[in-house]
């Protein structure tokens, strides 16, 4: 009987992604994060961009979960 030796495992080579292709998406996600942070953390009262309390009530629980005071 012969014992079969295991075949070598092929290690995948990482693909390089140029910064030109990643940068627009990184900027978009950063702007989206800042806008989301504004609406969750500051959209109420004097700094309100949307009239009424619709945005405040929609993100109310998230605001408390993230530690933003609102009362």
Automatic annotation (TrEMBL):
Domain of life per record: Bacteria
Swiss-Prot/TrEMBL keywords: Membrane, Transmembrane, Transmembrane helix
Short name of any one Pfam family annotated for the protein: CbtB
Bilayer-spanning residue ranges: 22-41
Protein name: Cobalt transporter subunit (CbtB)
